[in-house]
């Protein structure tokens, strides 16, 4: 019985001493783009003007893609 009582504090002491130190690490955070509504609207208007210019040169495929993007912005 006496040996059990003596061993318990030794095991507790060993558990406290052998506790690993916290590891400092680095976390990677994803880049989040800050959107500006006025800037997006201006880019949409510029794309619409580009689409009009491209239709004048009969480049309809390029104009259509820019017009679709302009309506989404």
Largest sheet: none
For the residues shown, what is the average pLDDT? 86
Distance between the termini: 80 Å
Tertiary shape: rod-shaped
What string, H for helix and E for strand, traces the elements in order? HHH
Helix content: 55-70%
Strand content: under 5%
What radius of gyration results from the CA coordinates?
34 Å
Total number of helices = 3
Features of this protein?
single chain, 73 residues, mainly alpha, 3 helices
In a nutshell, what does this entry contain?
With 73 residues, the chain is mostly helical. The protein contains three helices and no strands.
Q: How are the elements arranged and paired?
A:
Layout: H1 2-17, H2 37-56, H3 60-72
Helix pairs in contact: 2-3
Organism: Coleofasciculus chthonoplastes PCC 7420
Signal peptide: 1-23
Protein name: TolC family protein
